[in-house]
Amino acid sequence: MTAEALRPAARPVTLEDVARTAGVSRATVSRVVNGAPTVDPVLRRKVEEAVEATGYVPNQAARSLVTQRTDSIALVVSEQERRPVAAPLVGRMFTDPHFGRVVGGLLDVLRPAGVQMVLMLVDDDTSRRQFLSYLRQGHVDGTVLVSSHASDPLPRLLAETGLPAVLAGRPARTVPLPYVEVDQRAGARMAVDRLVSEGRRRIGTIAGPQDMPAAQERLEGFRDALAAHGITDAPWAEADFTRAGGAEATRRLLSEHPDLDGVFVASDLMAQGALQTLLRAGRRLPQDVAVVGFDDSEAAGACEPALTTVRQPVEEMAAEMARLLLGRIKRPEGSPLSMVFRPTLVERASA
Amino acid sequence: MTAEALRPAARPVTLEDVARTAGVSRATVSRVVNGAPTVDPVLRRKVEEAVEATGYVPNQAARSLVTQRTDSIALVVSEQERRPVAAPLVGRMFTDPHFGRVVGGLLDVLRPAGVQMVLMLVDDDTSRRQFLSYLRQGHVDGTVLVSSHASDPLPRLLAETGLPAVLAGRPARTVPLPYVEVDQRAGARMAVDRLVSEGRRRIGTIAGPQDMPAAQERLEGFRDALAAHGITDAPWAEADFTRAGGAEATRRLLSEHPDLDGVFVASDLMAQGALQTLLRAGRRLPQDVAVVGFDDSEAAGACEPALTTVRQPVEEMAAEMARLLLGRIKRPEGSPLSMVFRPTLVERASA
DNA sequence: GATCGCCGAGAGAGCGCTCTCTCGTGTTGG
DNA sequence: CCAACACGAGAGAGCGCTCTCTCGGCGATC
């Protein structure tokens, strides 16, 4: 490696430079770089050597300008507007291990495809406007949108741009965009079936925020499953998908229904809080109260007792989102095909 | 909004179009869009109306091509090479809540600056090469590198590109790049001081992987602090910064030193595992064994008992990295100025 | 009243690349 | 042996934008 190669201040190497050192035209170098088949092997070799010698790297901006592609997509997290006071710096979504799994699953497909991922946060009108204009600027070829609140206008606005996009989870209102999600109702049913098969009859649930479609469906699935077992009483408390929220909601639920012998908690993180509350209330687990979580996060196995939980294949779902999106980028006219994954029950000690 | 505006298939609006509808030249539109001062207010108004009417959004690729800037940076996570078998799809880094806090802190500074963040994972030669060539392509203006392993060649390679970059944490080998980190030794000292002031004398530590500089320094700080208190025996066990690893290492440590009355665990996640092991071994916490963690993650407060821990201001540190990077992008010739933050002790129930 | 200077706007040259079109060469068939 | 053809390579026209340079018009100066 020459000193030249180390100095980026020097004029960057262009196609022209490579062409000159290889003794061919710009067009030929372009063909070689882009793997066109119609190049004489001898010339190809010469060009490759010239590329090597000059340290040439294509300029993405110039390429995008003519191809109208950027080979990158946006991962957009749309959160509820921050409250004016005391909110953490930036949304809590990023610290949720669930989100990390989504990122991992996406990258697993995007990286081999040579597609980069831009991470964006939308949490108010300004950032929403910025994001939409960013999209229209053609800065990314498509979008994966993580939007959890039913009232979020972003899925609709995104659909209206007509640009390729995929949603993480079914939107509250029907929108002409493909989505990927787990069968929430089936998951809740599995949890209830497990609790019932363990002989539990006084079963409650800690539900997620009822302005989130996913949380709504888990609650509805819970109720339907209980009804299917002939149980009409379905006590529940709402929490915010955090550990602390789960603990607090469990306290409320327990004070109103001290005789509970089973709980379906709509996320593992909340289940951690629920277990804590139950233990502190003197319940033995699972003898007195059996608990089933949702997600099968890494923490589930580390709970005390280890958490029986409904597994959703987050990484595979994320990978599928990436594939769906790349497909739509390639053929935008195809019909928006969604995918619903089946959850499975992971049996551990808590139920 | 007209039907036209909704149809992206239609030829996108360019500067030329705006210029025509406003009855001015391209140059003037460009001046208005970029806020140049030397524009007649009347014309400016006309242009703004034309921009509004046409729905014009500047093309980033074209702009980058001439300005040589992209207004985006890369957040690069460099992990140890994956093992060939049984490794999870993509590195575990993303599911670590610590990482989420870093992302949040970065975005907090980048968003107001209008700078986008591209998330990249480097975990083998191929992806490293891809990343470096991505950089040289000028696809991003700078890099924030999260690299934790001492043997990682990436910090050096990154420095050699001469492009703006900031490191999360001090690199093992000195490299001409600014870094941001917490004073690891001081943190370990705070933990030990706390344990000693609680009357503990038989103190061990669960250290992080000793191929990570941060983990090394915490261990060294631990030893130095014990020595300062006249304690020469410093038992320790190494773990991998995971919950399960922390639990396992604690088992080992405890079997060799059953009389331990205090433990400094080099991360909260590992501390969760340590608490579990200690409880299962019949120790009362904190009466029999006091425990101090490191990080002050969200989970620390949710532990049973709540974890006394060394807080590092992750979000502020990340924000500082972003500021440092933006500064270097603006003035690359400035000297690479690093920052070391002071940790604080958060007192809870475990020690 | 002529000259100078200044300010604001337009003209136009690229930025580095892709891609179509054209042309020259080698190959095949009649 | 020549026409028809295939194929590989070069020429050149942009992609949409910024920015320098130039120029017209105006007020100030002598």
In short:
Chain A is of the alpha/beta class. Chain A contains 13 helices and twelve strands.
Give me some keywords for this one.
homodimer; 12 strands; 351 residues; alpha/beta; six-stranded mixed sheet; six-stranded parallel sheet; disordered N terminus; DNA-binding
Question: Could you please describe the fold and organization of this structure?
Answer:
2 copies of one chain form a homodimer. In chain A, 43% of the residues lie in helices and 16% in strands. The first copy, chain A, is of the alpha/beta class and 351 residues long. A 6-stranded parallel β-sheet of chain A has the order 2-1-3-4-5-11, sandwiched between helices. A 6-stranded mixed β-sheet of chain A has the order 7-6-8-9-10-12, with helices on both faces. Residues 1-9 and 84-90 of chain A have low confidence and may be disordered. At the A-B interface, helix 5, helix 6, strand 2, helix 7 and helix 11 of A face helix 5, helix 6, strand 2, helix 7 and helix 11 of B. The first copy, chain A, binds a DNA duplex (30 and 30 nucleotides) through residues 12, 14-16, 24-28, 30-31, 34, 38-40, 43, 58-59, 61-68. Chains A, B: InterPro entries: HTH_LacI, LacI/GalR-like_sensor, Lambda_DNA-bd_dom_sf, Peripla_BP_I. Chains A, B: Residues 13-67 form the HTH lacI-type domain. Chains A, B: Keywords: DNA-binding, Transcription, Transcription regulation. Chains A, B: GO terms for molecular function: DNA binding.
